[in-house]
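Check out one such.
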Amino acid sequence: MPVMSHVPPPVSKLDIARNWLPRYTGMPIDDFGDYVLLTNFSNYVDRFAAQFGCDVEGENRPMQAATNSAGLSIVNFGIGSPNAAIIMDLLIARQPKGVLFLGKCGGLKTTTEIGHFILPIAAIRGEGTSDDYFPPEVPALPSFKLHKFVSDKICERGFDYRTGVVFTTNRRVWEHDEAFKTRLQRVTAIAIDMETATIFMVGHSNEISRGALLLVSDVPITPEGVKTEESDAAVTRNWADLHLQIGIDAMTHIGSHGEQIKHFQY
Protein backbone atom coordinates (compact mmCIF):
# COMPACT_ATOMS: atom_id res chain seq x y z
CA MET A 1 0.00 0.00 0.00
CA PRO A 2 1.26 3.50 -0.71
CA VAL A 3 2.48 5.44 2.30
CA MET A 4 0.19 8.33 3.11
CA SER A 5 2.12 11.52 3.80
CA HIS A 6 1.10 13.37 6.93
CA VAL A 7 -0.28 16.83 6.22
CA PRO A 8 -0.25 19.04 9.33
CA PRO A 9 -3.43 21.00 10.02
CA PRO A 10 -3.37 24.65 9.04
CA VAL A 11 -2.15 27.07 11.67
CA SER A 12 -4.82 29.54 12.74
CA LYS A 13 -4.37 33.17 13.77
CA LEU A 14 -5.43 32.20 17.29
CA ASP A 15 -2.78 29.46 17.40
CA ILE A 16 -0.11 32.00 16.49
CA ALA A 17 -1.36 34.55 19.03
CA ARG A 18 -1.40 31.97 21.84
CA ASN A 19 2.19 31.07 21.04
CA TRP A 20 3.51 34.57 20.47
CA LEU A 21 1.87 36.60 23.25
CA PRO A 22 3.91 34.86 26.00
CA ARG A 23 6.92 34.76 23.70
CA TYR A 24 6.86 38.54 23.15
CA THR A 25 5.95 39.59 26.71
CA GLY A 26 7.29 36.81 28.93
CA MET A 27 3.88 36.63 30.60
CA PRO A 28 1.65 33.52 30.49
CA ILE A 29 -1.70 34.12 28.84
CA ASP A 30 -3.61 33.27 32.02
CA ASP A 31 -1.73 36.03 33.87
CA PHE A 32 -3.20 38.74 31.66
CA GLY A 33 -6.19 40.54 33.14
CA ASP A 34 -9.57 41.30 31.62
CA TYR A 35 -8.50 44.91 31.07
CA VAL A 36 -5.22 46.08 29.53
CA LEU A 37 -3.31 49.35 29.45
CA LEU A 38 -0.99 49.76 26.46
CA THR A 39 1.94 52.15 26.44
CA ASN A 40 5.17 52.97 24.62
CA PHE A 41 7.16 53.47 27.79
CA SER A 42 8.93 50.94 29.99
CA ASN A 43 8.88 53.44 32.87
CA TYR A 44 5.06 53.32 32.87
CA VAL A 45 5.29 49.57 33.43
CA ASP A 46 7.87 50.10 36.19
CA ARG A 47 5.67 52.73 37.89
CA PHE A 48 2.65 50.43 37.65
CA ALA A 49 4.57 47.50 39.16
CA ALA A 50 5.95 49.67 41.98
CA GLN A 51 2.49 50.96 42.84
CA PHE A 52 0.90 47.52 43.05
CA GLY A 53 3.87 45.44 44.18
CA CYS A 54 3.71 43.14 41.17
CA ASP A 55 6.48 41.72 39.00
CA VAL A 56 7.54 43.07 35.61
CA GLU A 57 7.66 40.27 33.07
CA GLY A 58 9.58 40.22 29.81
CA GLU A 59 12.48 42.46 30.73
CA ASN A 60 14.57 40.50 28.21
CA ARG A 61 11.73 40.35 25.64
CA PRO A 62 10.50 42.83 23.00
CA MET A 63 7.60 43.84 25.28
CA GLN A 64 7.34 44.21 29.05
CA ALA A 65 4.16 43.50 31.00
CA ALA A 66 2.73 43.42 34.52
CA THR A 67 -0.63 42.54 36.09
CA ASN A 68 -1.95 43.71 39.46
CA SER A 69 -4.15 41.78 41.89
CA ALA A 70 -7.30 43.46 40.53
CA GLY A 71 -6.78 41.91 37.10
CA LEU A 72 -5.49 45.01 35.30
CA SER A 73 -2.50 44.47 33.01
CA ILE A 74 -0.10 46.91 31.38
CA VAL A 75 2.08 46.24 28.32
CA ASN A 76 4.88 48.32 26.82
CA PHE A 77 4.61 47.31 23.16
CA GLY A 78 7.25 49.67 21.79
CA ILE A 79 6.95 52.43 19.22
CA GLY A 80 5.07 52.67 15.93
CA SER A 81 2.02 51.33 14.18
CA PRO A 82 3.49 47.90 13.26
CA ASN A 83 4.11 47.16 16.94
CA ALA A 84 0.65 48.47 17.80
CA ALA A 85 -0.85 46.04 15.28
CA ILE A 86 1.21 43.17 16.69
CA ILE A 87 0.00 43.60 20.26
CA MET A 88 -3.63 44.14 19.23
CA ASP A 89 -3.45 40.94 17.18
CA LEU A 90 -1.72 38.95 19.91
CA LEU A 91 -4.25 40.01 22.54
CA ILE A 92 -6.88 37.83 20.87
CA ALA A 93 -5.17 35.01 22.77
CA ARG A 94 -6.66 36.58 25.92
CA GLN A 95 -9.65 38.48 24.46
CA PRO A 96 -9.59 41.32 26.99
CA LYS A 97 -12.80 43.18 27.74
CA GLY A 98 -11.14 46.54 27.16
CA VAL A 99 -7.82 48.07 26.06
CA LEU A 100 -6.71 51.66 26.69
CA PHE A 101 -3.66 53.14 24.99
CA LEU A 102 -1.68 55.66 27.06
CA GLY A 103 0.51 57.44 24.54
CA LYS A 104 2.08 60.80 23.82
CA CYS A 105 1.28 63.01 20.85
CA GLY A 106 2.26 66.26 19.22
CA GLY A 107 -0.24 69.09 19.49
CA LEU A 108 -1.23 70.68 16.17
CA LYS A 109 -3.57 73.41 17.42
CA THR A 110 -3.01 76.49 19.53
CA THR A 111 -5.52 74.97 21.97
CA THR A 112 -3.36 71.86 22.51
CA GLU A 113 -0.52 72.79 24.81
CA ILE A 114 2.10 70.59 26.44
CA GLY A 115 0.53 68.71 29.34
CA HIS A 116 -2.98 68.66 27.89
CA PHE A 117 -4.88 65.39 27.61
CA ILE A 118 -6.59 64.37 24.38
CA LEU A 119 -9.39 61.84 24.19
CA PRO A 120 -9.63 61.32 20.41
CA ILE A 121 -13.01 60.84 18.78
CA ALA A 122 -11.33 59.33 15.71
CA ALA A 123 -7.97 58.93 14.01
CA ILE A 124 -6.88 59.57 10.44
CA ARG A 125 -5.23 56.49 8.98
CA GLY A 126 -2.03 58.01 7.65
CA GLU A 127 0.17 55.19 8.94
CA GLY A 128 -0.49 52.55 6.26
CA THR A 129 -0.50 49.56 8.62
CA SER A 130 -4.27 49.59 9.05
CA ASP A 131 -4.70 49.23 5.28
CA ASP A 132 -3.89 45.54 5.76
CA TYR A 133 -7.04 45.23 7.88
CA PHE A 134 -9.72 47.40 6.26
CA PRO A 135 -10.30 49.47 3.11
CA PRO A 136 -9.32 53.15 3.44
CA GLU A 137 -12.92 54.34 3.70
CA VAL A 138 -13.44 52.56 7.05
CA PRO A 139 -12.96 55.11 9.87
CA ALA A 140 -10.68 54.49 12.82
CA LEU A 141 -12.88 54.92 15.89
CA PRO A 142 -12.60 54.18 19.61
CA SER A 143 -15.24 52.42 21.68
CA PHE A 144 -17.50 55.19 22.95
CA LYS A 145 -18.43 53.61 26.29
CA LEU A 146 -14.78 52.99 27.18
CA HIS A 147 -13.96 56.64 26.50
CA LYS A 148 -16.89 57.65 28.70
CA PHE A 149 -15.24 55.94 31.67
CA VAL A 150 -11.95 57.72 30.94
CA SER A 151 -13.71 61.07 30.57
CA ASP A 152 -15.42 60.62 33.94
CA LYS A 153 -12.10 59.94 35.69
CA ILE A 154 -10.42 63.00 34.16
CA CYS A 155 -13.31 65.23 35.24
CA GLU A 156 -13.41 63.72 38.73
CA ARG A 157 -9.83 64.91 39.21
CA GLY A 158 -10.78 68.42 38.14
CA PHE A 159 -8.85 68.36 34.85
CA ASP A 160 -9.95 69.36 31.39
CA TYR A 161 -9.24 67.48 28.18
CA ARG A 162 -9.48 68.04 24.46
CA THR A 163 -11.37 65.99 21.90
CA GLY A 164 -10.84 65.85 18.17
CA VAL A 165 -9.30 63.82 15.39
CA VAL A 166 -5.72 62.58 15.67
CA PHE A 167 -3.51 62.05 12.61
CA THR A 168 -1.53 58.79 12.86
CA THR A 169 1.63 58.50 10.78
CA ASN A 170 4.53 56.08 10.37
CA ARG A 171 6.92 59.00 9.90
CA ARG A 172 9.00 59.78 12.95
CA VAL A 173 11.01 62.61 11.42
CA TRP A 174 8.75 64.94 9.45
CA GLU A 175 9.13 68.29 11.21
CA HIS A 176 11.36 69.58 8.40
CA ASP A 177 8.81 68.73 5.69
CA GLU A 178 6.75 71.84 4.91
CA ALA A 179 4.47 70.00 2.46
CA PHE A 180 3.59 67.43 5.12
CA LYS A 181 2.91 70.16 7.68
CA THR A 182 0.61 71.88 5.18
CA ARG A 183 -1.27 68.60 4.78
CA LEU A 184 -1.72 68.36 8.54
CA GLN A 185 -3.23 71.84 8.57
CA ARG A 186 -5.63 70.94 5.75
CA VAL A 187 -6.98 67.84 7.50
CA THR A 188 -7.53 69.94 10.69
CA ALA A 189 -6.22 67.23 13.03
CA ILE A 190 -5.84 68.25 16.66
CA ALA A 191 -2.71 66.15 17.22
CA ILE A 192 -0.33 63.70 15.58
CA ASP A 193 0.94 60.33 16.82
CA MET A 194 2.16 56.98 15.52
CA GLU A 195 -0.21 54.35 16.95
CA THR A 196 -3.78 55.46 17.66
CA ALA A 197 -5.39 54.72 14.30
CA THR A 198 -3.76 51.29 14.21
CA ILE A 199 -4.98 50.39 17.69
CA PHE A 200 -8.51 51.49 16.78
CA MET A 201 -8.57 49.56 13.48
CA VAL A 202 -6.95 46.32 14.64
CA GLY A 203 -9.13 46.42 17.73
CA HIS A 204 -12.13 46.75 15.44
CA SER A 205 -10.89 43.83 13.35
CA ASN A 206 -10.42 41.65 16.44
CA GLU A 207 -13.61 42.79 18.20
CA ILE A 208 -11.69 44.29 21.13
CA SER A 209 -13.11 47.39 22.84
CA ARG A 210 -10.40 50.03 22.69
CA GLY A 211 -9.59 53.64 23.44
CA ALA A 212 -6.72 56.10 23.75
CA LEU A 213 -5.77 58.78 26.25
CA LEU A 214 -3.00 60.88 24.74
CA LEU A 215 -0.69 63.31 26.52
CA VAL A 216 0.54 66.30 24.50
CA SER A 217 4.31 66.15 24.80
CA ASP A 218 5.36 68.66 22.14
CA VAL A 219 4.05 71.17 19.60
CA PRO A 220 6.04 70.12 16.53
CA ILE A 221 4.54 72.58 14.05
CA THR A 222 6.71 75.31 15.58
CA PRO A 223 10.53 75.09 15.43
CA GLU A 224 10.91 75.69 19.16
CA GLY A 225 8.26 73.05 19.91
CA VAL A 226 10.01 70.03 18.35
CA LYS A 227 10.55 67.30 20.93
CA THR A 228 14.02 66.79 22.36
CA GLU A 229 15.31 64.35 24.95
CA GLU A 230 15.37 67.13 27.52
CA SER A 231 11.84 68.38 26.80
CA ASP A 232 10.40 64.87 26.78
CA ALA A 233 12.02 64.13 30.14
CA ALA A 234 10.32 67.24 31.55
CA VAL A 235 6.93 66.05 30.27
CA THR A 236 7.47 62.64 31.85
CA ARG A 237 8.53 64.21 35.12
CA ASN A 238 5.54 66.56 35.29
CA TRP A 239 2.66 64.51 33.87
CA ALA A 240 3.47 60.79 33.51
CA ASP A 241 2.20 59.80 36.95
CA LEU A 242 -1.12 61.56 36.40
CA HIS A 243 -1.46 60.11 32.89
CA LEU A 244 -0.89 56.58 34.16
CA GLN A 245 -3.13 57.02 37.20
CA ILE A 246 -6.09 58.22 35.14
CA GLY A 247 -5.70 55.13 32.97
CA ILE A 248 -5.51 52.88 36.02
CA ASP A 249 -8.56 54.51 37.61
CA ALA A 250 -10.64 54.32 34.44
CA MET A 251 -9.90 50.70 33.61
CA THR A 252 -10.24 49.58 37.23
CA HIS A 253 -13.61 51.33 37.43
CA ILE A 254 -14.79 49.58 34.29
CA GLY A 255 -13.86 46.23 35.83
CA SER A 256 -15.62 46.95 39.13
CA HIS A 257 -18.62 48.84 37.78
CA GLY A 258 -20.08 45.82 36.03
CA GLU A 259 -21.35 47.70 32.97
CA GLN A 260 -20.52 46.12 29.64
CA ILE A 261 -18.58 48.34 27.26
CA LYS A 262 -19.07 46.03 24.29
CA HIS A 263 -22.78 45.89 23.63
CA PHE A 264 -23.15 45.06 19.96
CA GLN A 265 -22.03 42.53 17.40
CA TYR A 266 -19.76 43.38 14.46
